[in-house]
Amino acid sequence: MAAPDIVMYEEEFNQIKTIISKLRVDANAKVVFLVDKNGQQIAAHGEIENLDTTSLASLTAGNVAATDGLARLIGEKEFSILFHEGEKDNIHISIVAQRVILVVIFDERSSLGLVRLRVKKASQELNDVFARIMAKVEREKATAGAAFESPFAEITDEDIDSLFSE
Amino acid sequence: MTFINYASREINCKIVYYGPGLCGKTTNLQWIYDKTNPGAKGKLISLATETDRTLFFDFLPLELGTVRGFKTRFHLYTVPGQVFYDASRKLILKGVDGVLFVADSQVERMDANVESIENLMINLKTQGYDLMSIPYVLQLNKRDLPNVATVGEMTRLLKKKEEPVIEAVAPKGVGVFETLKAVAKLVLSELTKAG
């Protein structure tokens, strides 16, 4: 496998939620959310009732992947910040811990400078959380060895068939 | 790279539809989108040109239900099939859990099929995967057309390992869910080996 699977535990998930909700308040933003580089949404906070967050996550990841490709073409490692400016709303995208994407949506109540400043601080905190998650996954794998406990260890054919039974 | 969230008890898997240009990848997705009940699916996103050729990817999130107390979600992606979009194809394979190859059964497209599978193997390798070990299913699409190659011949040319081979007519839905189910099964049983 290219990279280890991300496994999210309750404790770290709550820490992440706290960090992004604080970031939303500090940056005066409408929405803050976190996606992994493959387009899976990790957490979201703010005015998300009318927002298709699944699509947002997948398009953000596509956007970052395309920009990464562009960066490598011109000899850069990555473009760590992307910014899209709209008439009312703007999107600030940054990469955290090399593997997750932090997205901040904000309007005229905030400013790019403020968002950048607050994102920088939150990124450091998120970095620490993800380092802890990766360490935890490694530890569990090491201690449990081949018997690393997967909740899916006992999936049967019937389980899978039942998913398609509608 | 499966994403398992113990906190919200969810598991997300990424499935990619691969294949040569105009083989019916988007048509597969369109059928699935049309036939699943609204509660189980998200929006079908298509990043296509004005002539409906896929430019970057199509994306369809599907919620399949619960396995062992975990909400199971599949994110289906297609790649742009046209040869010159290779850079985009590479990106979409990032973090893939299962690949579904859609082959065009028309005799004159056989070279394109072969070339596309070769391309798939190379691109998987650049992302650190191996076709031989990743969950993989081969779909022989367009079986209703008059000038198709025989199943035997296509299997001989395109089959790479012990992957399931499924015949399909995507616009009519023949074989579409069967193929998805086959790859979902392989992806989920891969999880049982996690460690």
Give a topology summary.
The complex is a heterodimer of chains A (166) and B (195).
Chain A (H helix, E strand, L loop, with lengths): L5 E3 L1 H17 L4 E6 L4 E6 L6 H21 L7 E5 L4 E7 L3 E7 L5 H33 L12 H7 L3
Antiparallel strand pairs in A: 2-3, 2-6, 4-5, 5-6
Helix pairs in contact in A: 1-3
Chain B lengths: L2 E3 L4 E9 L6 H11 L9 E4 L5 E14 L2 E9 L7 H7 L5 E7 L5 H17 L9 E6 L9 H8 L6 E3 L8 H16 L4
Parallel strand pairs in B: 2-5, 2-6, 6-7, 7-8
Antiparallel strand pairs in B: 1-2, 3-4, 4-5
3D structure, described in words:
The complex is a heterodimer of chains A (166) and B (195). With 166 residues, chain A is an alpha+beta fold. Chain A has helices at 10-26, 53-73, 112-144, 157-163, and strands at 6-8, 31-36, 41-46, 81-85, 90-96, 100-106. Chain A has a single domain (10-163), classed as Dynein light chain 2a, cytoplasmic (Beta-Lactamase, 2-Layer Sandwich). Chain A has 4 helices and 6 strands. Chain B has a single domain, classed as Rossmann fold (3-Layer(aba) Sandwich). In chain B, strands 1, 2, 3, 4, 5, 6, 7 and 8 form an 8-stranded mixed sheet that branches. In chain B, a hairpin with a 2-residue loop joins strand 4 and strand 5 (70-78). Chain B is globular. Classes of the chains: A alpha+beta (166), B alpha/beta (195). At the A-B interface, strand 1, helix 1, helix 2 and helix 4 of A face strand 1, strand 2, strand 4, strand 5 and helix 2 of B. Strand 1 of chain A pairs parallel with strand 1 (3-5) of chain B.
